[in-house]
């Protein structure tokens, strides 16, 4: 008598409409978190996404889960932009530029402070996205330095904090002013990163570890 080994069944894949609904929720949440902060009512997010409240809670059991998904998705898209630029051109500095400009378009300066105040910074999903981002940008910067494109006295933390500061509206001004000039000012910053350096920077290069300890 032979023993029949049961065939393992694959978990069913989410339906296409369910995936579209989830993406609509994340997109609407990102827009509204930027506009109104992390405390925007979830039913307002559902309304903007064009789905019911139950659909939001089916995908994200609480606010922390939704905020975390938004932040992780933004980080993943900025990293993907840098990877595409590096694959398409082989130019490390261009990949760095693509990352910085995409981070501004994704409003990363408005979203990342939420990580400091609304939920567990050590959640595995958040750590995985953050580590992937830091690892890739660090590798791109090392490659640009080795090619003589990037000044040697900067580190990943310098790029991250400058990109966040330069893409945030000044006190007393509206977002429309920042939107019109953010890429201009980011490009001025990026041009200042090019080698050879025209001046010596005060202090030491800022690492991501320095930022975490601050």
From TrEMBL:
Keywords: DNA-binding, Transcription, Transcription regulation
DNA-binding region: 41-60
InterPro entries per the UniProt record, alphabetical: Homeodomain-like_sf, HTH-type_TetR-like_transc_reg, HTH_TetR, Tet_transcr_reg_TetR-rel_C_sf, TetR_SbtR-like_C
The keyword DNA damage is annotated on this UniProt entry: no
Protein's name according to its UniProt entry: TetR/AcrR family transcriptional regulator
Domain HTH tetR-type as annotated: residue spans: 19-78
Pfam families, alphabetized: TetR_C_43, TetR_N
